[in-house]
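May I ask you to review the protein record following this short note?
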Amino acid sequence: MTFDDVKMTNLPQHPAGYLSLQVVTQPRDANASGDITAGWLLSQMDIAGAALACRVARGRVATVSTGSMNYLRSIPVGGVVMIYCDLLHIGRSSIRVLTEVWCNDGDRDDPHKITEGEFVFVAIDEDGHTRAIPPREDE
């Protein structure tokens, strides 16, 4: 599948969830063609999702899985990447988070969706062992 194969008319116009991370892409984050690498973007998505998971778990978390992702567009150097996170599920020790990546191309003010992915985090204690997530105060 290429970027041209994706039906851009069916894309959402607004991100879901809450803004968790915003960063301007740098030349060091790009490949030889000047586009931001998928590995860099995946790590930013992991950081953004972990920030939400840490708040929910009230402490440390570890990433245990990521879902598949399809990249709808490339990201240029200088693009403003915005990562939105939405809480999908809280288990006994696990937290599922949906992350959506949106980008402004720097000189334009209309963000477009780049990709989304589901991340699963597990709450861990000081020794790195799985622990239960404390009950939420609104429960």
